[in-house]
Write a structure and sequence with these properties.
The structure holds three protein chains of three kinds.
Chain A (H helix, E strand, L loop, with lengths): L22 H6 L2 H29 L2 E3 L4 E3 L3 H8 L1 H21 L1 H12 L4 H13 L2 H11 L7 H8 L14 H26 L3 H9 L4 H29 L3 H6 L11 H11 L3 H25 L1 H5 L1
Antiparallel strand pairs in A: 1-2
Chain B lengths: L17 H5 L1 H33 L3 H6 L12 H8 L3 H33 L4 H13 L6 H8 L14 H8 L2 H12 L3 H9 L4 H12 L1 H17 L2 H6 L8 H8 L5 H21 L1 H15 L1
Helix pairs in contact in B: 2-15, 4-15, 5-6, 5-8, 5-9, 5-11, 5-12, 6-9, 9-12, 12-16
Chain C lengths: L18 H6 L20 E5 L8 H17 L3 E5 L6 H10 L5 E5 H9 L21 H7 L9 E13 H6 L11 H14 L3 E4 L6 H13 L16 H16 L11 H9 L3 E7 L3 H7 L7 E5 L9 E10 L5 H20 L1 H13 L14 H11 L11 H6 L5 E2 L6 H17 L5 H17 L2
Parallel strand pairs in C: 1-2, 5-6, 8-9
Antiparallel strand pairs in C: 3-8, 4-6, 4-7, 4-8
Helix pairs in contact in C: 8-9, 8-16, 12-13, 16-17
Classes of the chains: A mainly alpha, B mainly alpha, C alpha/beta.
């Protein structure tokens, strides 16, 4: 790398050069060196990020068996929209997202607020909260799959059995399968949100609490009028990120149920996976990916637009 | 980036003030609630790991007959050795480490050189590149999953197939816009005067990178390293697609595959081995982990 | 038909095509590569072959390597690169897409129809008569790899019929006679409840995930008297009385007798392991599973029982399946020739050469592998009888335990898989089976009606 350092001692700061540009002066001015620094980024993003995005658009209009490829217009999109499983997958994914929101959003916030009040045990609480996050998701899912065993040997059925309840069917029950997966997914990820909220809570200026206190605000009102408004920026972003994340849920249903029973846990990403890697229908898979991405884009835009006042005021 | 700094305990306050805490009623309430929270977190977060340890060192029939029985026939360490030898767990663990190391190296390479270019060198095209990198952050990953796969099995221009090679995992995983963003943000926060001074002393772009930027970037290198290594250790779907050959699979791909053909006790032992490394790493570097998680949140804001 | 689709390929597309096209599309696209001229069979050639046994099965691996060495000695011009890859639903398309499919690949019968339709395997017709045994394959299995124009697209190397697997030891514990397995579905139900009551195991099991639920439902429908598609593959006949009876049978075993356990999200491995470890009394599965259960998964040999698939008065037979060795569509004529040499050597030499047959059997027996396990012969009856005669002294499998199965295997008609979109049909039926097993109030008639229209739509979509 050192041999590439051809910059003359008197090189002007980059970006301020105003001399006429020739290839030679460009190289002498450090332009080549600069470009070399950009090369890893340009190559990797070009090949593994930007090009696949362009390729998606192309693929969605094609059908291929990898020996021969042909253009099919919007046929892939039509076949996606005509698939009765699409409705199932959209519904399941929406239910999944909503349940994940109901339990996955307030719990970490409240926990973070409580943990922030702890003194001696705060470090311990932080470590405990983050422990599930460092476990590889596959391991967590497989572990919980054994917890959810539908016979008496299942961990949850054993505990509930002490209270004379169950045994429940958990993942085998069309009604319970999504909530059961959501609980597992929340367990595996809520630590991140708690730590992020904790970090944000520490940045709230103490004067705000003090003046609220002087105004006679109790604990609840301090939380409501100081803590929440101060966190709203991060809360809004976290909510959006959670929405986008849960819309792309895959590993949990793939490993725990493969979409069953009766497709009751078939999510959109699982459907994309089946199109592409089970049926070999890459065109249809890409078309559904694009539709999903578009929906997420619209969702984010609407969300940001609808909340812009609240987040900036 | 927001840093909390270290505030002395007595001046630090949150919703409750120091005064509140001196009220006995409040103090009792805080202590009780705090104890309950820690207890609940212990059961909910550490409990499953403890049970995993128990199940990994019990026989399958014991675990099935009484999931909460504490080692009725003693501790069965042989499950662990069995997992190591008969299901080739050593191979899978080694593959995982290879995946992590490569992703870490290329991830750092791309983020550091790219971040340096965007934040410090700033050629005319830097803004376009930076915008193009940023834009990928806002495009959901799902959009290009299939296309990325087809790209990796037949690279454009080169016509190389990365299926069943570690390159197929390393390079796409290392192409991470978030890392580039973290590094360039960090470098932008360094006073420009430092670099100007180096330039006046005659240091070129390479020297500045090597002897100024790299040493200064230690904290952000730590954060990016942690995020990439953990991310690579956890990844499932992508290695599943790119490494169909069992000999190359990391544990996250191998575990679901061997699940049903492996004895329950041995399988639990395999799960236990898979969590030992990240958990120990976390307990050893908890401050760095938590700071990385917190700063990731700050950037998102 | 998809086979003709690529004729409409527009020129503009050329720029987007990958190397795949450049390699394969030389000449007229309807011409299979093998008919491009006589192969030079002495030139050095390298082929790759799939299904090398993994290290988890050291004995099989050793046997494989031994045979490989013999082959290379016999054919010094052929280099064989043996790979551990096996057909898997999830990864096979990727293999085709990436061009990494080995020259010789084993695929299940279920896949071959679609592969022929998409021309994703090589036409081997012209080189098939090279060897003795390949010319004497059983007509039943040859149908599977032959298209309407009598072109042959692969070599069937193993075949089986679906049967009722049962655990002989559980039968004894439940006071049943293991030598008199159930022959009607009423008997199956009675045995299932008896086993469930008398032992820790569940009486009966069925798989439900990864299209296996539909596969077994189709098999049992044959035993109850109906196929699920018309013979020409144009009409779905999913909603038929026989299939309804099967589901009714599931329903009573599950909800009236509670003899099917508690987990109904089972894939192939889950179910097979549960059976091998003695947790399941009976289930419907390939009758060729002896080696899989006993050698690979440690089931005691004397526990393994197999019976013909029970038939009702209307029963039409049982489903057959197996493996086909196919050749990569991009293979040159030389590679195809070498591939067929290998297939003939590895899978068929034992039928034509007594020394090889006996030596193989002896070695397999010495390695603890199964010799003489029940299977459906892929060669004609005469060759197979001669083979059994040769190895009679080496048989390690308690064939007397399969008396009933072995005496009827030739009689029970073999019904092929549904001719069109079998995997899609199975996927649709998976959910039907899951519904009946997980919801007590599942409306069987309604489920079948829905599945019927879903599958008809899939057939009509082409």
């Amino acid at each position: 790398m050192v041999v590439l350092d051809t910059e003359p001692r008197t090189a002007a700061p980059p970006g301020t050069a105003r001399r006429p540009r020739t290839p030679v002066s460009w190289v002498r001015g450090g332009g080549l060196t600069t470009l070399l620094f950009f090369l890893p980024l340009l190559l990797s993003f070009g090949m593994f990020s930007w090009w696949p995005i362009v390729r998606s658009l192309v693929l969605s209009l094609q059908q291929t068996n990898f020996i021969v490829t042909e253009w099919v217009g919007l046929d892939n999109f039509q076949r996606v929209l005509a698939d009765p499983l699409l409705g199932t997958a959209v519904w399941n994914t929406t239910v999944f997202t909503l349940i994940a929101l109901v339990i996955g959003f307030p719990v970490p916030l409240l926990l973070a607020v409580f943990v922030a009040e702890l003194r001696r045990t705060r470090a311990l609480a932080s470590v405990l909260v983050y422990l599930p996050v460092v476990i590889p998701p596959v391991v967590a899912v497989l572990l919980w799959k054994t917890f959810y065993r539908p016979d008496e040997a299942g961990l949850f059925n054993t505990v509930l059995g002490w209270a004379g309840l169950g045994p429940y069917e958990w993942l085998n029950s069309g009604a319970m399968v999504i909530p059961a997966i959501v609980v597992q997914a929340t367990w595996a990820s809520f630590g991140t949100a708690v730590i992020i909220y904790l970090a944000a809570l520490m940045t709230i200026r103490t004067e705000l609490y003090e003046s609220a206190e002087i105004d006679g605000a109790g604990v609840v009102r301090r939380f409501w009028h100081v803590t929440l408004p101060q966190l709203r920026g991060i809360l809004l972003i976290m909510l959006l990120l959670q929405l986008i994340g849960t819309f792309q849920v895959f590993t949990e249903p793939y490993i725990m149920t493969d979409g069953g029973p009766e497709n009751r846990s078939l999510t959109l990403l699982l459907l994309i996976y089946r199109y592409a890697f089970v049926s070999g229908d890459f065109g249809r898979a890409t078309a559904l990916s694009l539709l999903l991405a578009l929906a997420l884009g619209v969702l984010s835009a609407v969300y940001l637009w609808a909340t812009r006042r609240w987040s900036t005021s | 980036m927001t840093t909390t700094g270290v505030r002395a305990l007595d001046t630090e306050r949150s919703i409750l003030s120091g005064m509140d805490r001196r009220v006995p009623r409040v103090r009792v309430a805080v202590t009780v609630v705090g104890a309950l929270i820690v207890l609940a977190l212990g059961v909910a977060c550490a409990g499953p790991l403890f049970w995993l340890f128990k199940a990994a060192t019990s026989t399958s029939s014991e675990t099935l007959a009484d999931p909460f029985g504490f080692w009725p026939s003693g501790i069965h360490w042989e499950n662990l050795t069995e997992a190591w030898t008969s299901v080739r767990f050593g191979t899978y663990l080694l593959n995982t480490l290879i995946v992590c190391a490569g992703t870490w190296f290329f991830g750092l390479l791309i983020a550091l050189t790219g971040g340096y270019g965007i934040a410090i060198l700033r050629p005319a095209y830097a803004r376009v590149v930076s915008a193009a990198v940023l834009a990928t952050l806002f495009i959901p990953g799902v959009i290009s999953l299939v296309a990325l796969y087809l790209t990796v099995i037949d690279l454009p221009v080169l016509n190389v197939n990365l299926l069943n090679t570690f390159w197929g995992v390393w390079l796409p995983a290392a192409t991470n816009a978030f890392n580039v963003l973290l590094v360039s943000r960090f470098l932008q926060s360094i006073p420009p005067a430092l670099f100007d001074a180096a330039r006046i002393d005659g240091a070129g772009a390479v020297r500045i990178f090597w002897s100024l930027v790299l040493p200064l970037s230690r904290p952000i290198i730590g954060v990016v390293s942690l995020l990439t290594v953990i991310g690579a250790y956890k990844d499932f779907l992508w290695p599943l697609l790119v490494l169909p050959d069992p000999d190359l699979q990391p544990i996250s791909v191998a575990l679901p595959r061997i699940e049903s053909s492996t004895d329950l006790g041995v399988f639990m032992a395999a799960l236990l081995i898979s969590v030992v490394l990240p958990v120990l790493l976390f307990l050893g570097f908890q401050r760095q982990f938590l700071r990385a998680a917190g700063s990731a949140g700050a950037i998102k804001e | 038909m998809t086979r003709r689709r690529h004729r409409r390929l527009p020129l503009t597309l050329a720029i987007t095509l990958t190397a795949a096209l450049a390699l394969s599309a030389c000449g007229d696209d309807s011409e299979p590569s093998s008919s491009g001229g006589p192969a030079d069979t002495d030139a050095p050639v390298t082929i790759s072959v799939s299904n090398k046994p993994t290290t988890e099965f050291p004995e099989q691996r050793e046997a494989f390597e031994r045979r490989l060495e013999e082959f290379t000695t016999d054919h010094p011009n052929i280099t064989v690169d043996a790979q551990e890859v096996q057909w898997e639903a999830d990864t096979f398309q990727a293999m085709l897409a990436g061009g990494t499919m080995p020259t010789v690949m084993q695929v299940p019968f279920t896949e071959i129809g679609a592969l022929i339709g998409r021309e994703q395997v090589a036409d081997v017709t012209d080189q098939l008569d090279r060897t003795d045994a390949l010319g004497r394959l059983s007509p039943t299995v040859m149908d599977v790899v032959t298209d309407d124009e009598d072109r042959v697209w692969g070599v069937p190397i193993a075949a089986y019929t679906m049967g009722l697997l049962y655990n002989r030891s559980l039968f004894e514990q439940a006071g049943l006679d293991p030598d008199a397995p159930p022959q009607t579905w009423e008997d199956v139900r009675a045995a299932a409840t008896a086993i469930d009551a008398a032992t820790d195991a569940q009486g009966f099991a069925t798989m439900t995930l990864d299209n296996t639920g539909g596969w077994i439902l189709t098999t049992m429908s044959y035993g109850f008297g109906s196929t699920l598609e018309s013979d020409d593959g144009e009409t779905a006949t999913v909603d038929n009385p026989a299939t309804e009876e099967v589901l009714e049978f599931y329903r009573s075993l599950r909800w009236d007798d509670d003899a099917m356990g508690s987990n109904f999200l089972l894939n192939y491995d889950d179910a097979v392991n549960a059976f091998a470890s003695g947790q399941v009394g009976m289930f419907v599965q390939g009758a060729d599973n002896y080696s899989n259960m006993v050698v690979n998964r440690g089931m005691p040999a004397e526990d393994f029982g197999v019976a013909p698939l029970p038939q009702t008065d209307d029963g039409i037979g049982t489903l057959g399946g197996g493996s086909v060795a196919v050749v990569n569509p991009r293979a040159t004529p030389e590679e195809i020739a070498a591939a067929l040499e290998w297939i003939d050597f590895y899978h068929f030499q034992k039928y034509t050469d007594e020394t090889v047959a006996v030596a193989n059997a002896e070695a397999a027996a010495a390695d603890g592998l199964a010799v003489g396990a029940p299977e459906l012969p892929v060669v004609d009856a005469e060759l197979y009888a001669q083979y059994l005669d040769w190895i009679a002294g080496e048989v390690t499998v308690p064939r007397e335990n399969f008396e009933l199965y072995l005496s009827t295997v030739e009689e029970l008609p073999l019904i092929p898989e549904p001719p069109v979109k079998a995997q899609e049909l199975y996927a649709t039926l998976d959910t039907v089976v899951q519904a009946v097993l997980t919801r007590e109030d599942a409306d069987i008639a309604q489920l079948l009606g829905d599945a019927q229209s879903t599958h008809q739509a899939a057939i009509d979509a082409g």
